[in-house]
Amino acid sequence: MILVTGGAGFIGGNFVLDWLAQSDEPVINVDKLTYAGNLDTLASLKDDARHIFVRADIGDKALISELLAKYQPRAVINFAAESHVDRSISGPGEFIQTNVVGTFNLLESVRGYWSDLAAEAKAAFRFLHVSTDEVYGSLASDDPAFTETKTYEPNSPYSASKAASDHLVRAWHHTYGLPVLTTNCSNNYGPYHFPEKLIPLVILNALAGKALPIYGDGQQIRDWLYVKDHCSAIRRVLEAGVVGETYNVGGWNEKPNLDVVHTICQMLDDRQPRSDGKAYAEQITYVTDRPGHDKRYAIDAGKLERELGWKPAETFETGIAKTVDWYLTHQDWVQNVTSGAYQNWIEQQYS
Ligand code: NAD
Ligand code: TYD
């Protein structure tokens, strides 16, 4: 079996669902269930014996060590993190705690478990760390896309904490021989995305008749990848990645934020027009820019394609259409995640 951390979050949840749709290999899903963790995402696995959910913090060394000893996974895939840049600006402490200290404790639990494995299981074991392109910093408009050799220049508390975790993972391989793999992925979007991030926030605000907040001039560029393509890349790296290597994952889809928002508005105009006949784009509102806002991210995913034969299946156009349709047809999930703590965040961030 495999052990996944953060599997009740956006990407981890999609990963667990996709994994069990394609394989009978069981998954132990370890998640603290912070505001971003949502068991509704995993509702279809409720009575599925292949899915074992444990509420736990990756930083709880004793409990994680116990779980590893009990279930003997052949791999650990670490999705667990605090993941939202704006939250890292208003409260960086949790980011250091989970992304840095938590990853350190997890590495130590895994190292203890792995050290005691028999030779064959030890050689086959993998620790796959899921990271972000934001560790590389911000690009000017004519800079080449990030390759795996780009220097780390993180600019936000979030990206700095992820960069620190990447360095720990690297060091645990170099020093202790732990068989690690690291993936650095661009911005994901798709089903079960918590609506604090741009794409789901815009879809839901548009439908609710609320403002569509654009930070600054909206010309910041992100490289978008449909979440299921990220999941297939992780499966491929787990299966065939070279131990100690890092792999960039991206969709070759660079888009300015404003274009992304206009595309979503157009799709909603076509699928669920406003009752007053006006365009959803009229709800676009320019708001104060994010402090230290990175201008451009772009991923060169060539290594993953050349060495492991992975390519994304979706273009931005096909992926965003699937995403908009998913939100339109999953109002129950939306209703559940947008109550309570979510409302407090929206008020604090946008008032
Ligand atoms: P998310 O915020 O939606 O989910 C994170 C999950 O981790 C939640 O279920 C949360 O409950 C859990 N968690 C948080 N702290 C924990 C702890 N201390 N112990 C156990 N569980 C904990 O994040 P996401 O968007 O799914 O991102 C998953 C991973 O992928 C993160 O490591 C993130 O840095 C990375 N990543 C995200 C993107 C993106 O666009 N979302 C892009 C590249 C990489
Ligand atoms: P986000 O989804 O938070 O991802 P990240 O900051 O990790 O790239 O934001 C994507 C882009 O959209 C980023 O440039 C910030 C911008 N943005 C807005 O313009 N308005 C918003 O309300 C949000 C949440 C993000």
UniProtKB/TrEMBL annotation:
**Taxonomic source organism:** Iodobacter violaceini
Family, according to the entry, reads as follows: Belongs to the NAD(P)-dependent epimerase/dehydratase family. dTDP-glucose dehydratase subfamily.
Q: Which gene encodes it?
A: rfbB
Entry's EC annotation: 4.2.1.46
Domain NAD(P)-binding intervals: 3-323
UniProt GO molecular function: dTDP-glucose 4,6-dehydratase activity
Task: Report the protein name in the record.
Answer: dTDP-glucose 4,6-dehydratase
Q: What class of enzyme is it?
A: lyase
What chemistry does it catalyse, as a reaction equation? dTDP-alpha-D-glucose = dTDP-4-dehydro-6-deoxy-alpha-D-glucose + H2O
One Pfam family assigned to this protein is GDP_Man_Dehyd
